[in-house]
From TrEMBL:
Organism: Autumnicola musiva
Organism lineage string: Bacteria, Pseudomonadati, Bacteroidota, Flavobacteriia, Flavobacteriales
Protein name, UniProt field: Uncharacterized protein
Length: 315
C-alpha cells in the first residue's frame, strides 16, 4: 500500500515538473506567434499573426512538398524592391512575395511584432503547402501554411458590351499570287479566297491570369455578336468556343472569279477586304464550393473576310 502511494506521488511530481518545464520553455522562447498553422480555402484570403516581441526575422520560406526554398521578390518597408527572384528572407520590416499565374502569396511585416500573410486564389488543381521559417539567434520556429485545392467553377453566362475602343474596322490583305506563261489568252476561274489562313478567326483575350483556367477542360460554346449597327449588338445564334486559343470557322464565301489571262507571262493577285471586330465581354462563373459569382472581363476579337475583293496585276 505504501509503495502504491509512493508511486502515485512520484508520477504526480514528475508530471508537475514536466508541465512547469514546458511552461518555462514557452516563456523563455523569443519567437511566440499567435498561431503556427494557417489553413485556407482555395479562394485565398488574409491572416494576421501577432507576436509577443519583434526580436526575430524570416530566415526563409520553403515549399513543404519538395522541401525547396521558394524564390521571389523582397521589398523594403517603403516599397522599394531590394531583391528580385531571390531566396526569400526578411530581416526587418518590409514585404516578400512569390506570385505565379495560378497561385502565390504575399507576406508583409508592417510592425516588428506582426505578420500579414495573404494568399491569392489557388487554381493549380493541387494543394499549396509552404513553411515560413522564423529565426532568433539559435532558436527556430515554423509557421505552416496550407491552402486547399479548388473545387472549381462552372459556366453561368457571358455578356457582350460595346466600350469606347470597341467596334468594327476594315483592313486589306493580299491573297494568293498567280503566275502564268501561256501562248494565247485564256480564262481562269479561281476562288478570290484561296490560300492559307483564309477563314473567320475568333479569339478571347483577357489580362486576368485565371481567365481560362476554370473551364479549360470544358468545351464551352457561347453566342457571339454577328453585327454592330448604330452602336447596338445583334445576335442570331452564332456560337464560338470560349478558351485561351483561337478557333476558326469557314468564311462562307463560295463565289468564284473568272480572270482573263493574257498571252505571254503574267502575274496577278487578289486583294481581299477584311473586317476586325472587337467587343468587350464579362464572363460569369459560379464557384462550386461557395456558390459565389466570379466575373472575368476581357475582349472578344474576330477577323473575317467581308466578301469584297479586287484583282491586281503586276508589271
Amino acid at each position: 500500500m505504501k509503495n502504491s502511494i509512493f508511486s502515485k506521488i512520484f508520477v504526480g511530481l514528475f508530471l508537475s515538473i514536466g508541465l512547469v518545464s514546458c511552461s518555462n520553455d514557452d516563456e523563455m522562447s523569443t519567437i511566440q506567434p499567435s498561431t503556427s498553422l494557417i489553413e485556407m480555402e482555395a479562394e485565398g484570403g488574409e491572416t494576421e499573426i501577432y507576436f509577443s516581441n519583434g526580436d526575430w526575422q524570416i530566415a526563409k520560406v520553403r515549399n513543404q512538398n519538395s522541401n525547396i526554398a521558394i524564390q521571389g521578390n523582397i521589398y523594403s518597408q517603403e516599397g522599394e524592391m531590394l531583391k528580385e527572384n531571390s531566396m526569400l528572407s526578411l530581416e526587418d520590416q518590409g514585404k516578400i512575395e512569390a506570385l505565379w499565374d495560378s497561385k502565390g502569396f504575399t507576406i508583409i511585416r508592417d510592425t516588428p511584432s506582426s505578420l500579414d500573410i495573404m494568399l491569392k486564389e489557388n487554381s493549380t488543381g493541387e494543394e499549396f503547402h509552404f513553411i515560413v521559417v522564423l529565426k532568433s539567434g539559435e532558436e527556430v520556429k515554423e509557421i505552416e501554411v496550407f491552402q486547399k485545392k479548388s473545387q472549381g467553377y462552372h459556366f453561368n453566362s457571358i455578356e457582350f458590351i460595346l466600350e469606347e475602343e470597341d467596334g468594327d474596322s476594315l483592313f486589306v490583305k493580299k491573297g494568293t499570287t498567280y503566275r502564268h506563261s501561256v501562248s494565247e489568252s485564256q480564262e481562269l476561274t479561281v476562288s478570290p479566297y484561296g490560300g492559307i489562313d483564309v477563314h473567320k478567326q475568333s479569339l478571347f483575350l483577357s489580362s486576368e491570369k485565371d481567365a481560362f483556367v476554370w473551364i479549360e477542360n470544358d468545351s464551352i460554346m457561347v453566342e457571339v455578336p454577328t453585327d454592330i449597327n448604330n452602336n447596338e449588338l445583334s445576335f442570331d445564334g452564332e456560337q464560338r468556343l470560349y478558351g485561351r486559343y483561337s478557333s476558326i470557322n469557314p468564311h462562307g464565301f463560295e463565289e468564284m472569279a473568272t480572270v482573263t489571262i493574257p498571252a505571254g507571262q503574267s502575274v496577278f493577285f487578289f486583294e481581299q477586304e477584311w473586317r476586325k471586330r472587337q467587343v468587350s465581354y464579362k464572363l460569369s462563373l459560379i464557384n462550386n464550393r461557395t456558390g459565389e459569382e466570379k466575373i472575368i472581363e476581357g475582349k472578344w476579337i474576330e477577323t473575317a473576310p467581308t466578301g469584297r475583293y479586287s484583282i491586281h496585276w503586276e508589271d
